[in-house]
Amino acid sequence: MIQRPRARLGLLFLLLTASRARAADFYVDVVNGNDLATGTSPGNAWKTLTHASGAATSGSATTIHVASGTYSPASGETFPLQFDFQRLVSDQGSNLTMLDGGFGSQPLIAMTSPRGSGTPKGLALVQGFTLQNSGSGVDVSANWNVIDTAVTDCRIASMTTRGIRVDNGAFGFAGGVVHLLVERCAFESVPDGISASATFGGGTVTVVDSNFSLCGHSGVDLFVGSNPTTLGDLTFTLTRCKFDTNSFAGVSGIATNLGSWTGTLQDCLLVHNGAGISTSAPNGLGNFMRIDCVRCTIADNFGPGARVLGATQQVHGEASFTSTIVQGNSPDLDVSNVTGTAYSDIGGADPLFVDRVHGVYRLQFGSPCIDAGDPNGVGTLDIARVARSIDGDLDTVERADIGAYEFTPLRLVTSGKIGTPLRLESSGEMGGTSTVYFTRGMPVSPMTTPFGQFDLNPTSFGTLLHTGVAPFPPIGFQRPIPNLTVLIGHTFSFQGLTTSSVAPQGSAYTNVVSVTITP
């Protein structure tokens, strides 16, 4: 009898502590909300993010859902917004949900860790907003603690200082650390897209599937070290990012006063910038910087394709290039120490881009860069998220290409919307032909044949058509998609068998392409 109450109390304690750890959801609606409401449902949403930042429970288990509309000083917002590591998510996406600074000078969102043992403030996630018309979109400053945050599916435009600022600062001998992840973001018309610095602190910047254009200085700008006692250290990774028409450089940086940074660019495109990459270590205090470019295209920049300079042999500036095209820059390379150029085309044969004047840097059939990259590139995604490797030269052997784009002999051009044409393009030797097959559903595990890999379901495929092919421009063909709602959500896959003088049997299977029908 005595034990039962204790057991019940123990169970009650577990339930109470478990409820505190459960995910919590709060709602903000600039049009229909009220800051006197509970904020716990769409029908009882708060009006301002300023109120939500303090009223919502803290921690990454909390999601603040934001309805579409413009959140600005005119609607009651006070910038910068400071949260307590919740997740800030727009339910309708960046096209419909704006944080607008009203042309003020403040950051829209500030994430800080105070000096000493103070508790850092920030967001675990910012997702699905347009951030515009202010000093900066997101400021992350770590002076003591560690801040780990992500910015995804955002458009950041028309800022007066930068899009995102990362500052790994220092007080005494214990610098802060920032780990920043940026995914699927667009930076337009800002001085710097992402500006990161480290002085005694350290950190990582990881950017994936993002575009930087029309930046007044650079897409990504890095700085380590500020005085003779600093030991800043940054590591950055850029994957499937595009840097186009940025005034100074696509990527720029300085390492000084014992500072160091290392960076990797994978499947990136850097074109029409003041320079593709421009970095320097200007003094002899032991700073170090290294950049590794893997499967990138660095072309037609007005200055150097890659400038990585150290002031002396003791101040290192290193760069390596693997499966990378560096072409049409002035000069292509200006690097203190090039540690490797494996499988790369640096100032060599014409890559045969589709249309370099208008910024189309895919390869034409017959390019010397097709099937000439590092064989270890298999399994990666190119900048258009095409899976490598593909048999681009139609010799029945799949191998990764040099450059940011993997060439596809069969290419899907249209979106798959009902009631519109489905258009495909087929490339190959002049005068050649291709039989295009189709099946319902996604590709299956590839089957090895004398003509290369066949990726369609062998028990249910049919013939779509027989067509000619050409090196460039490719032969296009289309079929109408019926305006039938019953088709929405269904996937169809296509693969061609194309004549080829370099294939052992005289023909080779192309890559497979798939389309899912949309409304």
Question: How would you sum up this structure, described in words?
Answer:
The chain is mainly β. The chain is built from two helices and 43 strands. The chain has an 18-stranded parallel beta sheet that branches. A twelve-stranded parallel beta sheet has the order 1-2-4-7-9-13-16-19-22-25-28-31, with helices on one face. It has a four-stranded antiparallel beta sheet with strand order 40-37-42-43, with no helix packed on it. Strand 35 and strand 36 form a beta hairpin. The longest helix has 19 residues. The protein is globular, with a radius of gyration of 27 Å. The N terminus is likely disordered.
Helix-strand layout with pairing:
Blueprint: H1 3-21, E1 24-28, H2 49-55, E2 62-66, E3 69-71, E4 84-90, E5 97-100, E6 107-113, E7 122-127, E8 130-142, E9 146-152, E10 155-168, E11 170-171, E12 174-175, E13 177-183, E14 186-188, E15 192-198, E16 202-208, E17 211-213, E18 218-224, E19 233-239, E20 242-244, E21 249-255, E22 260-266, E23 269-271, E24 277-281, E25 288-294, E26 297-299, E27 306-310, E28 316-322, E29 325-327, E30 333-335, E31 337-340, E32 345-346, E33 353-355, E34 360-363, E35 410-412, E36 421-426, E37 433-440, E38 447-449, E39 452-454, E40 462-468, E41 475-480, E42 491-499, E43 507-516
Parallel strand pairs: 1-2, 2-4, 3-5, 4-7, 5-8, 6-8, 7-9, 8-10, 9-13, 10-14, 10-15, 13-16, 14-17, 15-18, 16-19, 17-20, 18-21, 19-22, 20-23, 21-24, 22-25, 23-26, 24-27, 25-28, 26-29, 27-30, 28-31, 29-32
Antiparallel strand pairs: 11-12, 33-34, 35-36, 36-41, 37-40, 37-42, 38-39, 42-43
